[in-house]
Amino acid sequence: MGNPPKKKDKARPHQRQHPQKPRFPILWKLIAVAGLALCGMIVVLLVKRAPQSDISLKIGDQTVPSDVFCLVMQQNRSEVVSMYTSQGLSTAQTSFWRTEVEGKSPARALLDDTMQELQELAAAYQLAQSCGFGLDGGLGGVTERMETENDLRSAKLEAGEHVYGLQSYTLQTYLSYETDWIASQYCSDAAHPGMDISQSQLYEYYQEHLDQYQKYDDISFSYLKVDLNQLDDSQKQVVQTQAAQLAQEMTQGKELQQQAAAYHALTPYMTHVDILSDQVASYSRAIGDVMELGWDLQPGEDTGLVELNGYLFLVQCTSRVEYDYQPFEQVQSVILSQMRKERYETLLQQTADSLTIEADLTELESFIIQEMEDANGK
Q1: Which of 68, 120, 125, 164 could crosslink 139 through cysteines, CB 3.0-4.6 Å?
Q2: CA distance 119 to 58
Q3: Where are the alpha helices (DSSP H) in 251-276?
Q4: Beta-bridge partner residues of 214
Q5: CATH dotted code for 215-321
Q6: Are 358 and 57 in contact (CB under 8 A)?
Q7: What does the alpha-carbon distance between residue 100 and residue 105 come to, in Å, rounded to a whole number?
């Protein structure tokens, strides 16, 4: 099949699906990672506390064990707490989990979120069993399978043998492992419903998602970037004056780096980068502000002097090699994998929605209240 015509207006890096870039400084990344680690510790600690009693819950053909219910419940807890505290409730209240806001208590909201996730989990095991993947007991047997796997790994370690991956699984990591494995097994076989995708369907998907397969240009920038907040008033005045003079010279079509060499106050803030197509994602994380300002420039063009978020910028594009879309034949296998994943997710949701629930929801809500209040010492 032929390739599509070239697209005149190429998307900026932040507008394309690839890459998806975080937009915060390294400091905030570290704080976010630390926060996630702490949240993970809290969830693990809460889940390890034995539930007061077993629950009775069946979704479709899948029996939901109490430890799986508690795990999913605790994973959804913080979001529910955040939602209700933002509406005026306080976790210091002994009645927090029972107090209704607009007709629904936090306990009921947590139950709803937990059940929704459990339905999707049950759907994965339902599909696995219908396809004969051999997971004895389905979701109901997950704890026993995890313990068996952990025993095998422990025995290998004691015998001095190498163990691939984790030395042992938690319930959370084992569920993730099994559901990923189910998805992989399902999507790898064209005989499974929804996985047989024709060549014409692949090409139609390619045409509908062209921006995903557009190769970034190679591009080079010379740029001035000054953090004005780091300068005292006299330094700031000198830098701004010289930067304005430099910007005026640039209107005559001169090279930024060459012209900046004459300005002693600016040279420490001058940088030149050559960015290849496959480096755009990493550079976007490092100098996303510069790339945002200069992405549409052609060689020799500059932004003029720009003051933004406490920084002073002057960006010039020095070279550019334009690329078009990646050929269909080159990305065909990627499209097949993506389409199968999307179809699997759709099928999973459809299956989840169709499963019947056998449970007393009032009892489950009471179970949640008891668990939450006991965990908080109330």
Answers
A1: 125
A2: 10
A3: 256-260
A4: 325
A5: 3.10.50
A6: yes
A7: 4
